[in-house]
Design brief:
The two termini are 26 Å apart. The radius of gyration is 16 Å and the shape is globular. Strands 10-1-2-11-12 form a five-stranded antiparallel β-sheet, with helices on one face. Strands 5-6-7-8-9 form a five-stranded antiparallel β-sheet, covered by helices on one side. The protein has a two-stranded antiparallel ribbon with strand order 3-4. The protein is 33% helix and 33% strand. The chain contains four helices and twelve strands; from the N terminus they run ββββββααββββααββ.
Length: 211
Amino acid sequence: MSQLIACRSTEGIVLGVDSKAVDLDAQGREVHLTVERLFPLGPRAAVAVGGAPEGVEMARALSRFIAEEKLESIDEIYSAGLAFLSSRYNEFMRAICRDVPLDPLHHVHFILAGVSGQDLENPYKLYLVWTKKKRPQLDGEEILHAFTVPRRMALEYRLSKMAQRGASAEEVFKEVRSAMESLTWYKEEVGPPYHFALIAKDGFRTLPFGG
């Protein structure tokens, strides 16, 4: 499993991820791993990845691809990223799951966040790219204010209200950090180390866990 949290603020987008993942060994038994889930996409965007551990390598490859293509606007990154991730996921499914029913452990989720070069009035954009339930392919849509994977509706409601009232990045970060800590106490699938980042007009930067 994993936990992704994303929310817009007046000063940028706050992202939070944990590092716990579950995979299957050769005998089909669950194995708990620590993985990296947050990658920059050029100077002013990032991707957070959850779900199957294979999604981490897809996100890492996307980060390299965006750097090679020198894409900066989230508008271009989302368009190119959706096609890139869909291709990589289809390759994964053909190689690993050709004769195996689609399993929840094969689902992947990506949150793409960044600064738009087209929408100057609302420059901070969030997009969800995820696995469709009925067939092994990826689709995407824009996130308006806040989103969590897995869904934490009470948390999303609080974050959405903060975004709508114009909360600062510091306020949003404190709420995201507190929520991640709380989830760890009662959800076995969520665990440290945690990573947080702010994406603003001046670029992508990590936020210290301690404050």
